UniProtKB/TrEMBL annotation:
Pfam families: Csp (PF03860). InterPro entries: Csp_YhjQ. It comes from the Bacteria. This is Uncharacterized protein. Gene3D superfamilies: 1.20.1270.360.
């Protein structure tokens, strides 16, 4: 059972999956907003949000499939979500940036029990 392998309870795994999927959506929306405002796809923040969305999707899949790499993807999500939250909070141009920061922090909190249990 995956929960036993990565050191968390089934509820912790479910929370991390749900938070990953929500953060993925928020990162994709944030990326789309920035591109619509004229930022290039190669811009630093747009790249960060793309990486976040892709990693969130990978993490959710790894956890759902009980991959042996799930602990690593959760760890990467924890680190990247903290960076995205900080970037969104410091670069807050509108309410959507605060929503992105909130979702990224929720992901970090949801993945933390899987890493430090």
């Amino acid at each position: 059972m995956l929960a036993a392998r990565i050191g968390g309870a089934h509820a912790d795994v479910s929370r991390c999956i749900a938070a990953s999927l929500q953060c993925q959506v928020s990162c994709e929306e944030g990326m789309a907003r920035r591109v619509a405002r004229g930022e290039p796809l190669s811009g630093e923040v747009v790249r960060l949000l793309r990486q976040c969305a892709e990693l969130c999707e990978l993490n959710a899949r790894a956890l759902q499939k009980e991959s042996r790499l799930a602990r690593r993807t959760a760890s990467l999500c924890f680190d990247l979500a903290n960076l995205v939250a900080r970037t969104a909070w410091l670069d807050a141009e509108d309410r959507d940036s605060y929503t992105l920061a909130r979702d990224a922090l929720q992901l970090a909190r949801a993945c933390r029990p899987l890493l430090f249990a």
